[in-house]
Amino acid sequence: MLKIENLNVTFNAGTAMEKKALQNVNLTINDGDFVTIIGSNGAGKSTLLGSLFGTTKITSGKIILNDRDITNLPTYKRAKLIGILFQNPLLGTAPDMTIEENLVLASAKVKHKPFSLALTSKNRERLVEELKTLDIGLETRLKTNVGLLSGGQRQALTLLMATSATPQLLLLDEHTAALDPQTAIKIMDKTNTIVHEKKLTTMMITHNVQNAIDYGNKLLLMDGGHILKVIDEEEKKNLKVSDIMALYQNNLSDKMIL
């Protein structure tokens, strides 16, 4: 479903500030896999997701998504195939537009018709039902500008927007890290529900080792731009946080992790 071949990313090449952020990364992810990714700061986690989404320029390598080579595909075209959530809740929404306008813009239904025609009574009913699933009261605030929402509410809305058109790949870059603990749990549970109901192929970066173990069917360990280990579902079932820490202590130069 997703195949990454010999992926390399080097920042400031040929200068004193040269940084090899990804080094010969090879990875195959099957359709419907939910892969959690952990690693120390600078391990290459966000660079990997940025390379897939097109916001990070790769130095060499190839990216194949559903048998399509997207290595040189512009970001705006990848956005039709890939949904993404960032750590900052403010990045995924248009603050000066209403909740309903943000949701409709994210929907595939608006892409081939005027925006005003997409905001029909039937579509509003659909939006209300979608928002109810978040259980945070947004279904009664369709006309509210998104800029007036809290960070957690905006991240929940972004989650709906990123998954409304059922992307071929969903990327989650520490999407609960900036939220308070209670909201983070709610967003994570909703994420898990959507991923499983829609059978979304998903890659999620997290610094919460327990979340990395509890969610998904594969676990990816990274450091220094390399993939140290891919842990499959069977091994993951019996994994404990202490096991992960032991793996890092045996493999990493930077012991101050996570």
Give the structure's gist in a few sentences.
The chain is of the alpha/beta class and 258 residues long. The chain has a single domain, classed as Rossmann fold, CATH 3.40.50.300.
CATH class: Alpha Beta
Calculate the terminal CA-CA distance, rounded to whole Å. 29 Å
Query: Major beta sheet, specifics?
Result: 6 strands, mixed
Number of separate helices:
10
Rg is: 19 Å
Would you tell me the overall average pLDDT?
A: 88
Number of domains: 1
In CATH, the homologous superfamily goes by the name P-loop containing nucleotide triphosphate hydrolases
Pick out the low-confidence regions. 253-258
Overall structural class, as computed from helix and strand content, comes to: alpha/beta
Strand content: 15-25%
Order of helices and strands: EEEHEEHEHHHHEHEHEEHH
Q: CATH fold name, please?
A: Rossmann fold
Helix content: 25-40%
CATH architecture: 3-Layer(aba) Sandwich
The strand line-up of the biggest sheet is: 6-7-8-3-9-10
SS elements, strand count? 10
Task: Using the alpha-carbon principal axes, give the shape.
Answer: globular
Structural features, described:
By secondary structure, this protein is an alpha/beta fold. It has one domain (2-251): P-loop containing nucleotide triphosphate hydrolases (Rossmann fold). It contains 10 helices and 10 strands. It has helices at 45-53, 75-78, 99-106, 115-118, 121-132, 151-163, 181-197, 209-214, 233-237, 241-251; strands at 2-11, 19-29, 34-39, 60-65, 68-69, 82-85, 169-173, 202-205, 218-223, 226-231. Strands 6-7-8-3-9-10 form a 6-stranded mixed sheet, with helices on both faces. The protein has a 4-stranded antiparallel sheet with strand order 2-1-4-5, with helices on one face. Helix 3 (99-106) packs parallel to helix 6 (151-163) and helix 6 (151-163) packs parallel to helix 7 (181-197). The longest helix is centred in the C-terminal third of the chain and has 17 residues, at 181-197. The model is unreliable at 253-258 (pLDDT under 50).
